[in-house]
């Protein structure tokens, strides 16, 4: 694949046969000047087959590594190909391509991570999930004195220096506790207001109980693990 830009959009995908064509076609139409790669995370459905049939740029992992492994594979590809930035973009259709430019432009101001945030200018609704998000935000602020309003957003763009950290550190996952650790070690992080869509097809792996467990793990990691890493 010849490079069109210095930014690579990484699309981790696991069993997203109902969404992947629509999501990638939307990116190609809205962001034609950006490169992308779909990282098929050992899907058991036709995700990889559809990518091949449609000529999409594809990294096809032979086994399911989970989101962390898929993102690290994408970061390694971005690093080896010499990209200056990489943007995480979900394959389920919730992230909107119209906001890619604004995130990249914000990163170009000399930042290390820019988060596509639902809550820069909008308020969180009252739900258990948003309560969990607020708790994670409070934990990050407690250890870093930096307030991140949407720490669980998966729409993020990373500088090359940050990509390198993901490539060379096995325990770096695309999660709020890693963002907290990066801030603690001097990373400059910003948020840009975005909107997100509802999943149209397929099922999220996070049910209410898993969401609660996830929020608890993140809070514990931020306070008791990441805050004391060297």
TrEMBL record:
Which domain of life, per UniProt?
Bacteria
Q: Which InterPro entries match?
A: Glyco_trans_2-like (IPR001173), Glycosyltransferase_2 (IPR050256), Nucleotide-diphossugar_trans (IPR029044)
Alphabetized UniProt keyword annotations:
Transferase
Q: Which SUPFAM superfamilies match?
A: Nucleotide-diphospho-sugar transferases
Pfam families reported in the protein's UniProt record: Glycos_transf_2 (PF00535)
Gene3D superfamilies in the record: Spore Coat Polysaccharide Biosynthesis Protein SpsA, Chain A
Entry GO MF terms:
transferase activity
Keyword Transferase applies: yes
Which intervals hold domain Glycosyltransferase 2-like?
A: 9-160
Name this polypeptide is given: Glycosyl transferase family 2
